[in-house]
Amino acid sequence: TTEIYTRSIVGSVRCVQETGIRIVRKDMKLYYFDGPGRAEAIRLLLFHAGLKFEDVRIKREDWPKYKDKFELKQVPALEIDGKILTQSYAILEYLGSKYGYLPKTYDKLYKVIFVMNTAEDIYRKAYMALMPSSPLDAKAKDEAKKNILEVDGPLHLGALFKKLSENESQKFIVGHKYTIADFYLLGFWATVLQNPDFNATFYEVIKTKMPGLFTYLDERMKDFNPYYKKCATKLYYFDAAGHGEMIRLMLKAMKFPFEDIRIKIEDWPKEKETGKFILKELPVVACEPCGVKFAQTDAIMHRIGGRYGYLPINKPEKLYKVVWWCNTWKDLIVNYMGFAHSSYSEEKKKEFRIYYFTKIVPSLFEAMESKIMMNKCSDYLVGKSYTCLLYTSDAADDTPCVDLGGRRIIKKK
């Protein structure tokens, strides 16, 4: 089967880099224990890439039932249509190569592997010193913990801090966008945040002695607030279809949880002065408590469509067709509404309606029908899958004469 994918320049709530169509396996399962550990980097990559997967979290007592299923009898393991991949490093490089999280230059690739190996050194030593399942006895664990605090921890964390400081952007550890090295570090940081022993050992050290590294980890972690369910998406619009409906439809099609806040018309004069709404107009999509807000219907549709695979950003010809359709739908609505709700006399409005339905609408229909016939896949307006323009279908419900019903446009009686 095919599915649309998206990769972002600055994470899941910031800015889109690229979208395209790829082959996706129907069944993808990630097996690990119920904790971050070595699987968290893989989970974050899959989430960031927009890939659907089943997060199978194995209870410790159930592990004997599972371990013979996996090569080397260990997890994490990623199952794709019955094929099982093991070794966290190998899985990350496989996914990174397939979905664009590996650099294309040898110099940056070296830095990515250096960062991951350095973080792995810290993780291994911390595991031996801090985890209950460590094979070390109490005395050896105390010595290992002292070594982590005084020698290896500062040495390895200092090397990571140096790499970040030398990078062209302090938003990422290598280059100017996400790589598997970022996911690996964030996976380690998730363990620090969730495991009391790791937290007591590393959190304050990084926060106080390496503020740049702490800021990087803290900021990048915010990109995954939706994954950790730490933020809520809210759509503000009036209690009507209009420009808010296309956004509602897209979010519902994605099964993306959001709060549909419908403002009464009589309350709008007071609401728009609260400072909550960009440009003092609706719709607005807000991510709270992150504080990220999006305004302007077209911009919101592009943002959501790009991030979640309904806008072919890296396909210029298809992108042109999508924007052409969006603008043509808009012409159909705006040309009418702009005149129908104007201060012109009823006689002028009647003249315009006649002109609108005898001249403008037929010409737009003819152009639309031509585009439909040119598309090789007749089930969709552009390409072989949904694009964001289909979700403009109910935008004219506030208009007394026109209903955009997917591929058909019907006059209302």
How would you concisely characterize the structure shown here?
This protein has 413 residues and is α+β, with helices and mostly antiparallel strands.
List the SSEs and their pairings:
Blueprint: E1 2-8, E2 16-23, E3 28-33, H1 40-48, E4 54-58, H2 63-66, E5 77-80, E6 83-86, H3 88-99, H4 106-130, H5 138-166, H6 180-194, H7 196-209, H8 211-222, E7 232-238, H9 242-253, E8 259-263, H10 268-271, E9 284-288, E10 292-295, H11 297-307, H12 316-340, H13 346-374, E11 402-405, E12 408-411
Parallel strand pairs: 3-4, 7-8
Antiparallel strand pairs: 1-2, 3-5, 5-6, 7-9, 9-10, 11-12
Helix pairs in contact: 1-3, 1-6, 4-5, 4-6, 6-7, 7-8, 9-11, 12-13
